[in-house]
Amino acid sequence: MSSNHNLQYDGSSIIVDITNTFTKVTSKYTNNAKRRWRFAYTAIYSRRVMLSLAKEVISRKNHNRYTKIFHTESSSSRTTVDIIEPLIPQHGTNHYSLVGVSDVDKAKLADMVKDKNLKSLSEFGGVEGVANVIGTFPTKGIIGSEDDISKRVELFGSNTYQKPPPKGLLHFVLEALNDTTIIILLFCAGLSLGFGIKEHGPSEGWYEGGSIILAVFLVVVVSALSNFRQERQFDKLSKISNNIKVEVLRNDRPQKISIFDVVVGDVVSLKIGDQIPADGVFLAGHSLQVDESSMTGESDHVEIESVRAPFLLSGAKVVDGYAQMLVTSVGANTSWGQMMNSITRDSNERTPLQARLDKLTSSIGKVGLAVAFLVLLVLLIRYFTGNTEDENGNKEFQGTKTDINDVLNAVVRIVAVAVTIVVVAIPEGLPLAVTLTLAYSMKRMMGDNAMVRKLSACETMGSATVICTDKTGTLTLNEMRVTKFCLGLENFVMESFSNAMAPKVLELFYQGVALNTTGSVYKPSSGSVPEISGSPTEKAILLWAVSDLGMDMDEMKQKHKVLHVETFNSEKKRSGVAIRKENENKIDVHWKGAAEMILAMCDNYIDINGAMKSIDEERSKLEKIIQGMAASSLRCIAFAHMEISEDIDYFMKKENKTHKMLREDGLTLVGIVGLKDPCRSNTRLAVETCKAAGVEIKMITGDNIFTAKAIATECGILDSNNAGEVVEGVEFRNYTEEERMEKVDKIRVMARSSPLDKLLMVQCLRKKGHVVAVTGDGTNDAPALKEADIGLSMGIQGTEVAKQSSDIVILDDNFNSVATVLRWGRCVYNNIQKFIQFQLTVNVAALVINFIAAVSSGDVPLTTVQLLWVNLIMDTLGALALATERPTKELMRKKPIGRTEPLITKIMWRNLLAQSLYQIAVLLVLQFYGKSIFNVSTEVKNTLIFNAFVLCQVFNEFNSRSMEKLYVFEGILKNHLFLGIVGITIVLQILMVELLRKFADTERLTWDQWGICVGIAIVSWPLACLIKLIPVSNNTPSFTYTKWAKLLVFKLKKAF
């Protein structure tokens, strides 16, 4: 064959050539049985092969070489049998077998789509030729057996791409070490280590510096481990998020599979909102438009059709129409896969709360540095002016008489005190607390059917003041069934619908349902229940038509040719189709959609006997029928028809229309169906919970206003006092800007709304200062989801465009899960505030005690090791205990946090200042009078101060569980983590005091002295109860942390 590359074939020469080739091949076999088998093989399949090849040759008009279709690497070594082998159907099937495609073919297939090369497609023989090469029957798909799938994966690869390796633990360790706070602490550790060894020698001088390094090490490790786990959690969520379900046709059966299981040769069904799962070519469909901006950067929608633009790129989104595509390349061989290979996700997203806490930590650190510098200055002045004494009561500094080594040792000791001040002032546990609570809440929310796509949504949801929700599938079960049917002026309720119809009317319903739909019906050969796919509305109507009307969808498709399709979208709320029945010279136009809209397009209606009557006199009756059905919570769908002669144009005659549109006037109403979609059982309770939490619920739906009212009342969104709070989308959008701003708060339900109406409402609410959460499932909901503070997409019915535009995906499409997300959002914010209150109590108390003691006596009661121990157990363990509290019912009884609420509220200031002042007062009494009161040595006194201070924090940890409730032990026995952490803290404190005396600079305490420490600490419980009885007004804004920091620095400067 290699010598005939330039030969132009006609049909007869191909047949002769193939016959001769088969003769040559079979002549090689001497065995009669094999020869007979070969001839039988040729006789059975040659007719199909001849037709396929003849069609190919004719389509090229004898200008292309046949061998170009397959482009082999060594065509001279292949016979005609090798070339036609991929085209031969498997025995007993209508599928082409996948025998072998060369690497050149695979590369050419991939490049053809990526480059949108029509010439290359033509060389393959068009879409049919491509289907032949990759072993697919376009109308039935691939065989889909395990062996078939594995061969395709082996030959063409899987629909996955190689991701960059995930960040390891070492990366997060280095990232944690790069923190400013950690760098300051390590610098202090270096100073302390050097000064300590100089003063006390290597054997004991390393204690303080070593303890700082140990503390830093533990904080870094805990922080790195937490971030590492969060990274892995994000990867898991990313895999779940990317695991899109795709509808494919395999062995003539529609089925849902994972996007990762799509293989070359698959026939994929596409509809509005779908993400194209792989590169491929257009097979069949109508009005298909795609958004390729994610690939090309061009925002204009691309119209796809079979002749001029048949190529579909993976990663693009379907924005209009529907179609079937043939997959030609998957995974890394696609444009999307190649791009994703080089992209790594940045998980270092800083949420608004984390940014605010970073600022808080920085401000407190600056205060600590200022105080430390002040202490250093005061102590140096005291020392060099002779105001300090040694252990024998002599002046430490006596001018030139003092040995230089003594001066250096004294300066080192003073610097160590200043370092201690810095260490105690820096709240290194705050960032850790945020990381822990966000990671914990994300994991728990996943268990509650909410997948967080953006960390900031965890916090922002707690501030939500308005939730704009869809109806279908969110407030309702999304399990639609036809329960009512209106033919003419007659109503039927779940009886034998087909018996009520004249044959002509029944035929019109068959056409209007079977051919004007994006759904499909698959009848298993076993004769079991038909499998119906499509949207919930389409599925309900198809089930009704198949089960109650006896419709055969395959028969209808075979007998009719679809001429034009007007696809359904949320703006038009209707779909249309023009068809021609075989052997007839007339065209039937069918419309289906929102009942009142279809009714407005009709001039006639068909009565129960099949007679056509004028609708003018009966229009009001039909409108009342629709309203009555809608008031019963039914979704009303109407069917209309028009019969047009073949020589009459069935398109609308309108100027400035780039796309042809079916005629919408002069239609005949065929009938109306009512679909029931029951409310979810827990919806009303969830709505009432949100209302009690001060969150307004607004229902935005495309349904009839009467249906919307009925459902809203059933769910508790509307009650008898809410008259006048229901509007239609067209009414809302026609308001002036001032009217919208005035009325938007009062609106509870917006019916017959478009996605732009939803966007308009979100914009108005945000302008009024609301924090808005929006649910959405459609492609056109994307602008509203992005505009809202929190976008909530639906995991089941939501399109991929909607999911990628959202912050959180509600996996079960249930409004109750939306309320759960609200509860978790408040919990995250509340847990952070609890820890801030707890942490600042520790810092304020320790800072003031050491500052006063250092300035007054030149020494500090709490050593660096002891303060680091306090910081360690309070920061790490305290963060873990308080950051993992689960949501409580009380959180949903408070008003929303609001967009401008200060991070540290006046209630928090009240609690933390009261506890801090108590601890400061008691510990300063012990500092100055403890020796005489308890008749103990200085070492025992300092140990008492240290022990009492730690135990105060342990008891205050219980107080921090609730900032306002008097009883803080509610649910304590269920929180095993909290109890475990408290137990570990107490055990470690006993070890520090009783066993690690040399390291911690402590002395053993008697039982009585332990009792005194516990007694001092336990007073914090009744004190907290008394303090919480003091009312706090929220009318005036509280001090922000920045003002607090500036005020403290100003006061300290003024005092000294």
UniProtKB/TrEMBL annotation:
The keyword Acetylation applies. SUPFAM superfamilies: Calcium ATPase, transduction domain A, Calcium ATPase, transmembrane domain M, HAD-like, Metal cation-transporting ATPase, ATP-binding domain N. It is a multi-pass membrane protein. It is an enzyme of class 7 (translocase). GO terms for cellular component: plasma membrane. This is Calcium-transporting ATPase. Pfam families: Cation_ATPase, Cation_ATPase_C, Cation_ATPase_N, E1-E2_ATPase. It comes from Cicer arietinum. InterPro entries: ATPase_P-typ_cation-transptr_C (IPR006068), ATPase_P-typ_cation-transptr_N (IPR004014), ATPase_P-typ_cyto_dom_N (IPR023299), ATPase_P-typ_P_site (IPR018303), ATPase_P-typ_TM_dom_sf (IPR023298), ATPase_P-typ_transduc_dom_A_sf (IPR008250), ATPase_P-type_domA (IPR059000), HAD-like_sf (IPR036412). Residues 860-1030 form the Cation-transporting P-type ATPase C-terminal domain. The lineage of its organism: Eukaryota, Viridiplantae, Streptophyta, Embryophyta, Tracheophyta. CDD domains: P-type_ATPase_Ca_PMCA-like (cd02081). The chain crosses the membrane at residues 176-197, 209-228, 364-384, 414-440, 835-855, 867-886, 907-928, 977-997, 1009-1030.
